[in-house]
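Side project, low priority. Logging it here so it doesn't get lost.
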Amino acid sequence: MIKGLIIGLLTAVLAAGAFAKPNIIVIYTDDHGYADLSCQGVFDDVKTPNIDALAKAGVRMTDGHSSAPQCGPSRAGLISGQYQNKFGMEANGDFEKKEGVLEAFRACHTLPERLKKAGYVTGMAGKSHLGSDDSAELVKLGFDKVFFKHSNAEGSWNMDLEGKDISPQVQKGGGYHLELISTFACSFIERFKDKPFFFYLAYRAPHVPLDAPQKYLDRFPGEMPERRRQALAMLSAVDDGVGRIVETLRKNKLEEDTLIFLIGDNGAPLKIHKIDAPGGGPGWDGSLNDPMNGEKGMLTEGGIRVPFVVCWKGTIPGGQVYAQPVISLDVAATANALAGLPDDPVLDGVNLVPYLTGKTQGAPHETLYWRWLGQSTIRKGQWKYLRSDDREYLFDMENDFEEKHNVLSTHPEIAATLHAEMEKWADTLSPPGIWSQKSEGMSKAATEYYDWYLDGKRDAPTPTIDKKAERRKPAKAGPSEEQIFSQRDKNKDGKVTWEEFLAGRTDKIPALEANFKHRDTNGDGVWEKAEIQQ
């Protein structure tokens, strides 16, 4: 009888452990281009070993998206778990400028509010863009512990770096903002390690102003645009923070009890010409979207396809490269399910865990949608239909993820069907309709961007050069073709094979294969010196 009782108790304990609510950490980077994780395999200059390790232990999503091509709406979508257009949050400034939008957002059942009801302790640190920078106000969104800090200027917090509660107050000084919020995250984990917790870590990196300390800049010597160096340095600080967080989890034996997301909020702002302007202020932030076309402020892949990593050691098999389309809205749906909460049709995302563990096959989404001011797009299977004001495009994403070939004229019936579906979805938004949020100023900018990136009209004028700022000139991104060729040609025979080009990296990266084929102009499987493109 005693033996049976012990077995029963052990079974109950094991069952409880198997279904214990995991901790959830969401790391959100800022204006971080698709190319800029070293595990993406696009450029050699970026160094993110800790994020790479996270991807190796989990899943690197090659078709991961944000819900908007701009910071504010993207974050509102993430925290609400809904297409942010449903409550009127279309673009930066809408919380302040449009009546009722902030109130509608605050009326949402936010992700931290949901998890609090499930017994989670919740926290956030970094950039807000959630309607307030005041820690006392951010608590009202469901965050127990808050440290707003997006620069080296004043912040706001209700818990200090030792994990001690304080009254909501201004925070001053203390060091580099990216390091401080990493410290806050680690202190939060240490304090609440015995409870299920949710933490949202929003690094303002590599978003301008570019402000990396010298110790990070020193990690990237050699000739490159200074803005590129700054971006890489800021991302290196982010990567250090990710390493510290994982080490804190490991020290407390929480790695296998914690689901981690790392996602970019939108693509990098290239400003077309990638001008290496001095000072680190407005303009190109030094990050790159290759091989995706376009940039922040566009619904092309360069504006919405972002770095996207998911890791849950011991539950989600590691080393995966997942190519099905997913979106940042999936975070809330996944967290809601893992917390044991009932399904909520208000949430627009999907629980990704069954797909990433292999329990569920197929694509998580049948259809994904976006609307941003005068632009709208729909992704369904291999097809993506895109409108920018009166322009229309149809892309075959299986064969042209770089969006270089508009096939609308050869598949008009597919475009018409997708347009009808997109219109039906747009009628559920606030305000309804595809063009209801059209902005004259943004339409003018979109005209220039779509001319350049999709229609091949390369006549956008380079901004006026300040003669006193000699560095302010269009800059090549990363190492030159000659430098890349020399690095890859290991045996110095004047040829680079596919194996040499990989340089030990996985061959399961579509961008790598596309980059190699682009260089191998005659298609013989070897990149030769004569094929170096200037």
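Brief comment: The first helix runs from residue 2 to 18.
Revisit when time allows.
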